[in-house]
Each structure stands twice: as structure tokens, then as C-alpha cells.
Design goal:
The chain has about 220 residues and is an alpha+beta fold. It has five helices and eleven strands, in the order ββββααβαββββααββ.
């Protein structure tokens, strides 16, 4: 695989107590990570081929699905949402799904999720941000950020026992403290966007899209015009 190619990716910003004392789930990448080592990030990662056609307990919000289609090519919105849910499971052990038997065969990358007895349920996810990694970085991603209420999780939101080792120090960080962590630039921008719109958890009027040569340039807003 060409490491300089732009890969599709998805991230979930889980929030607790959005109306009173909001906190977001974050973890620290390892020191040996090729992309953003030791930075604090939201759970997320690259879209996998097996994310296409994954059965869903509930569909993605229609407005969000429409905005995900903008400037995306052939990639289906449901595939991006599935990737975000799978990455959340792998990196935190948290399940954004509903109890249901998996119909038919299951791809290896989804097997451990299916064994929990759930189907992914992206209905409560809100597409709120998109950013493409600028040129010159060791890895480049076209990442879609979803906001979701932790109340939509199935199970204990403090139980990270099923997490793999991709993120360390998983914890719920008070929103007003999160920007003090060692963050990638774009993560701090996303946090500011989220803070400005809470406690609202509905789709925003438009979605910021940073897709230029410099991640500090806001190229356009999806869903506007």
C-alpha cells in the first residue's frame, strides 16, 4: 500500500453529560506510532474494505448521510459510519450497537464485535467535521468526525477491558480541560467546534471541511449551498 496515499477514515467523539458537565472520550497514541505519536486523540482509524455492507440495527441519520456523500466519490456513508463504530470497539471496547444476532457470514475484522451479540447502530451519530491531512505527513487521511451521546452505548461507558492496545490512558476528559492535552492541531479545532454547539446533539447547519494544503485553511462547509 502507498503510504502517501490519502486513506478514508472515521472518528467518533463520544460525549457524556452534554447539557451539564460535558466530557469527551480520549486516549493517547503510542510513542512508536507512525502517525501522531503520543498525541491525545478520539477513537478512530482507517476505513476497511470489510466495513462495506455491514448490517446495521438502525440506519444513519438521513441528513448526515447526504452530507457524507458530498465530495466523497463512491464511498457509501454507511461504510464510513461502520468504520467509526468498528474502530471505537477495537480501541475502547465500547459498543455503539443494539442487541441482535449477526445475519450471515461475518468478516474477520468484525468477528469480535459480532460475538458480543450486537449489530452496529449509527442512528445517533452526527457528522460534524471533515479534514484531510495536509501533504508532507507520513500518513494522510480523509477523516470524517462523528459526534455521539455516550447514552447510546450498549454497556458500561467506563469499561475499557475489551480494548486493544492502540490507545493508552483512555479516559473521559472534561471538555473545558481537553484542549490542555497534547493534541494534534485539527483535534483542537474539532473540540472548539463541538464546544460551541453543545448541548445540541443534532446535525449542524453545515459541516466544516478542511481539505487544502494547510489544515488551518477552511476550504468550505458541506451542506451549505
Amino acid at each position: 500500500m502507498d503510504k502517501t496515499a490519502i486513506r478514508d477514515a472515521a472518528t467518533i467523539i463520544l460525549v457524556r453529560n452534554a447539557a451539564t458537565a460535558p466530557a469527551v472520550l480520549m486516549g493517547q497514541r503510542g510513542a512508536d506510532a507512525a502517525f501522531m505519536p503520543e498525541k491525545y486523540v478520539f477513537p478512530g482509524g482507517a476505513v476497511d474494505a470489510a466495513d462495506a455492507g455491514v448490517p446495521m440495527a438502525r440506519p444513519l441519520n438521513g441528513l448526515c448521510a447526504g452530507r457524507l456523500k458530498e465530495r466523497t466519490g463512491a464511498l457509501a456513508p454507511a461504510t464510513i459510519a461502520a468504520a467509526a463504530i468498528r474502530e471505537l470497539w477495537e480501541e475502547t471496547g465500547l459498543i455503539l450497537g443494539r442487541p441482535h444476532r449477526w445475519p450471515g457470514a461475518c468478516a474477520p475484522s468484525w468477528r469480535s464485535f459480532a460475538e458480543t451479540g450486537h449489530l452496529p447502530a449509527p442512528s445517533g451519530m452526527r457528522f460534524v467535521f471533515r479534514a484531510i491531512t495536509p501533504p508532507g505527513r507520513p500518513r494522510r487521511f480523509d477523516c470524517r468526525f462523528f459526534l455521539a451521546d455516550a447514552a447510546n452505548l450498549s454497556g458500561n461507558p467506563d469499561d475499557f477491558s475489551a480494548a486493544q492496545d492502540e490507545l493508552r490512558h483512555l479516559r473521559w476528559v472534561p471538555l473545558d480541560e481537553a484542549r490542555q492535552l497534547d493534541l494534534p492541531f485539527i483535534t483542537s479545532v474539532v473540540l472548539a467546534e463541538v464546544a460551541a454547539r453543545l448541548p445540541a446533539l443534532e446535525p449542524p447547519e453545515s459541516v466544516p471541511f478542511f481539505g487544502g494544503a494547510d489544515e488551518r485553511d477552511e476550504v468550505l462547509r458541506l451542506g451549505r449551498g
